[in-house]
Structure formats: C-alpha cells, structure tokens
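Researcher: I'm preparing a figure for a lab meeting and need a structural model of a single chain. I don't have an experimental structure, so a prediction will have to do for now. The sequence is pasted below. Please return the structure as tokens so I can convert it later.
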Amino acid sequence: MIKPFEKPLDSIKGLLGAAILGSGELVPILDMPALLKYKRPPEEPRKIAVEELEEITVMVVDDSPSVRHMTSKVIENAGWKPEVARDGVEAMEKLKAARRLPAVILSDIEMPRMDGYEMAVAISENPKLRDIPVVFISSRSGEKHREKATAAGITEYLTKPFNEADLTSTVKRLAKI
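Model: Understood. Here is the structure written out token by token.
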C-alpha cells in the first residue's frame, strides 16, 4: 500500500508517496512517467575567473637535482606549474624561448656556468624579464650575501632549509595571487 505524502512533501514532482516494508523500513515510491517527462531547466553558463584560465608558472633554478625536485613538489602542491633549470645559463635560455614567462623565479646562488647573482643581473637588464620577481633560496645567510643579492636586483631572500608555508606565501605575494 502506498501512503501519499502530506504538505510540504506532496509538492515534490516525481514522488508519489511511501510504503512501509515488512521489516519496518520506509521506502519512497517514485512516479517514473513524471520523472521521465521532467526537463531540467538550462544551467546558467558558469563564469570562469581569469585566474582559472591562467596557469601560474614558477621557475626553479638550482644545480642540485634533489633541491629542484623537492621545490618543484612544493610548487605543484600549491597548484602551480614548476619550470626547472640546472643553472643560470639554462634558465636564461628557457626564459628567452618562453611563450609565457614565469610569475616568479626561485633560484640558488651558487651554480655552475652562471650563478644566481649573474642571472639576477641579466634578468634585471633585460626589458622583457626585469619585472619578474626573483627569490634567492640559499644556505648563505650572512649579511654580505644579502647585500650582494639586493645589489643584483633580488626581490626576496630565503634561507635553506626553507619553510614550505613561507615559500608559498612569498610566491603568492610576489605573483599577486
């Protein structure tokens, strides 16, 4: 036996009522013809924010494979795309060939071929690249290194080992996310 629903449940389309099974379980009874005829109203087109369309890229420049890997994982976990380079020369080559520039560059100081200071100067002298914030992540924490970094055009200076939360908040702030 089907027991019809009372107000306010009686206004639900596609639901006839309920039945009680021998076990005492309450089971809804569906009006299948009504459900099959029901047409869902068209959905409003979803407005996509510009940030959703633009993937944030963060370049990681370090000669240590393990540091590149670890830092890239932090970047990925934050929802950004890491781009890696082994030293300043490779970073500059990738930057010159890039269709889309990274939002931030994270770099070590001591690297072969071109170190972080030389790369920072090259970036600051290039009109196409000079607006990209460069963050040094180095085990060198002395004031002498920080002053040299500032003179080279570095935006921020973090020391190794870095705190993941500090790194992601620094990237967010510099990339204006």
